[in-house]
Amino acid sequence: MEYFLQQLINGLTLGAIYGLIAIGYTMVYGIIGMINFAHGEVYMIGAFISLITFLVLSMLGVGWLPLALLIVLASAMFFTAVYGWVLERVAYRPLRQSPRLAALISAIGMSIFLQNYVQVAQGARVKPLPPLIGGGINLMEREGFVVQLSYLQIIIIVLTIALMVTFSLLINHTRLGRAQRACQEDLKMAALVGINVDRTISTTFVIGAALAAVAGMMVTLYYGVIDFFIGFLAGIKAFTAAVLGGIGSLPGAMLGGVLIGLIEVFWSAYFTIEYKDVAAFSILVLVLIFRPTGLLGRPEVEKV
Amino acid sequence: MSGARLFGPAWLTEGVKEALLQALVALILAVPLIGLKTVQEPGGLGLQTRWPAVAIAVACVFVGRLLLVIARHIWPPRPKAAHSPVVAARIRRFVRLLGPATIAFALLLPFLPFADRYVLDVSILVLTYVMLGWGLNIVVGLAGLLDLGYVAFYAVGAYSYALFAANFGLSFWACLPIAGALAATFGILLGFPVLRLRGDYLAIVTLGFGEMIRVILINWSSLTNGPRGISGIPRPDFFGVPFNPSPAPDASAFHTLFGIAYSPIQRVIFLYYLILVLALLTNLFTLRIRKLPVGRAWEALREDEIACRSLGINPTNTKLTAFAIGAMFAGFAGSFFATRQGFISPESFTFLESAIILAIVVLGGMGSQVGIVIAAIVLIGGPELVRELEEYRMLAFGGLMVLIMVWRPRGLLAFREPTIRLADFDRTARARSEPAATVP
User: Fold this and answer.
1) Measured between alpha carbons, how far is B33 from B37 in angstroms, rounded to an integer?
2) Which spans are transmembrane here (chain A) (predicted)?
């Protein structure tokens, strides 16, 4: 029971991170119908920028942790958002009228490019960061096994919930959100009624990248090591989460993220840790076979 | 307006403004990742600053953009005439000449004066990718199924040769069909549940399968020896006659058989011809099967699945054959890879390989056999030229993929030869297009 509870907490934390990345996939797929293959790399860049900002702050001697966290959050979100924006401008916008495969290849090319860009610029070694936020709340203890909810996990979950609430408000109650929902319905129609489609798509990439940056910061803090290759697997799992929740659906992305996080953690805890990635992929395959629209997605209408 | 015109004509001012703006964006991008480098120091991570590199990057963006603006002004982009019959005819003639010329060149290559060991090695590598590209083209180009896990079948082929040769002592020639059959079986097994998915979903599921096979190869140590891989895979022999510098007195070797002096390059030349023949077989197979009902069904399915279903074509079976045949060729290529390397490990079968093969197919212009050869030479041979810049190789590779796609979204040789021509349709199409061509 205690072991189960602990794994539940760990799974929720991991799921929050996946969910934040998954939102980027689901938004882009919802609007322009393509897999933003480089999104995992954007998340990796977010992690690197957080790490670098931490180091800059510690050199400048900013010691008060909440302030440092806020600055890192802002810096990671800003710089990563610019990366997301440029990514769309350079690799996707020229290809919007082209065959879908062209955009996919361009995205894969961008993913390879960004991965190697960070490898060349920052080195291939793993980057360790000493734990900044230690300690936690002991929830229960029995026979020496302590169930701990660490402060960092609280921060991650609270921050994710806060972002999700803000983000839902943004999508449901602002002009920008309305434009995004309109684009998701029909790009051409949206353009006809006077929505600036290009700007809406750009904003989508910026928001997606900013959320991925938050996930990157969380991972940097949570695991304490990052390298240039973390984007690939995290990207696939987040995409799986987006598909599981129903691609195009924002609550679905979050739900899918949490489920994937839980599945992965429980699989590692109760079965074999070696095959934990296989677990995520199997879930993806099973969902696509038996419920291709995901848990909360709308059925796709086949048109002639 | 005159106030904005500080120097030169208006387009130049605009161009400079644009370039400045982009340089600013480049500065924002470069400062955190290029300007500050994390380095391992005794007390933990430290930072190094590299402002000159940032300056160079920003200057490159500025100058590059400005040059592009100037070039656009001097040579304004022509309106696209993508499928004009004149261009199509020119491409067709070019391809018809290029195909045989390339084959003739490939046949003669080992005997040309500059063909040393290195050139042959690179050529073998390029040909392996040409073969993989042609194999994947059956799945992606003909049947229109996006497969991002093609490397899984390549791995199945490689491991089946390695394991059969190591455990049962079978020869390369006995293993080749086994490897192909096993890979095709895997294609059917993996394809069966997922082929009713379409487009990007199929892509991501095949990617998942590719990764799963790799994870299994890493973790199933008792069979595959895990991440350490399998070494000592038997090298190929000349139809049973080994390439052996000093054969036993009563046994024969390649050089004694032909009465020539031994040279280690003989084996390399044999490998070269082996992969050339395998690749050409793949090509011949594709060209011929396009004329069979199943090939026609693939192409029809690619164009419109609903129409096919209403015409009584079974989409699942048709797709499965494409998947299985594509996988079979990957299996052949995999056994060749294993025998050439003599060592395989799961590291050789990452997602990157799938991405490279798919990139070759798409960059070449989907469905174009010659285009795949050109793309393989550009993507595989090109980075070989800059071998010394090892760490920038994949960077250039990714950038090249994006650039080619943005420049030519339909691939390098974008013209697709129709498989069937209706005589009447052709004539009317020409009659219709000719008056249009006279309009300036």
Assistant:
1) 7
2) 12-35, 42-61, 67-87, 99-118, 150-171, 205-223
